[in-house]
Amino acid sequence: MTMRKTLFILVVFISCRSTGPVDGQKMESKGNVKKQLSRSWSITSMGGRNLESHKFTYKPPELKLDLINEKLSGFGGCNRLSGTITLKDGLVKFGAISSSRMICSDIDIEQQLLEQLSNKSYQYEIRRGHLVLTEASGNEIIMKGN
């Protein structure tokens, strides 16, 4: 086999190999989904509200998803958050989410986040490099990986 032919086969092989989902693609294997989603995510939009331009008192809301151990932790903009998360029937399902009890100027955003996540289920997909969670009502929570 010539060097040129070998190089061509190698390039085709590498370009066909996927390390993760592309835009709009759902992750099919349950184990793969758990690994892909188990990381820290910054919330950029919630219910149509852009959070990237908001000046938070402390830091923007961030969730650490651990689907392998079915745990969620993070920061809601004011308080630390913790709860449960599972992957079932093609949906990301959040259990009850608890938070510490500090008050700050960003508490309304945190309360909205808690209401939108606690005991809710979402379809998931990767869109333009962001994790998009879509509730049956059409409500979306958009996050970017950290």
From TrEMBL:
One Pfam short name: META
Ranges where the DUF306 domain occurs: 36-141
Organism: Fulvivirga kasyanovii
Protein name: META domain-containing protein
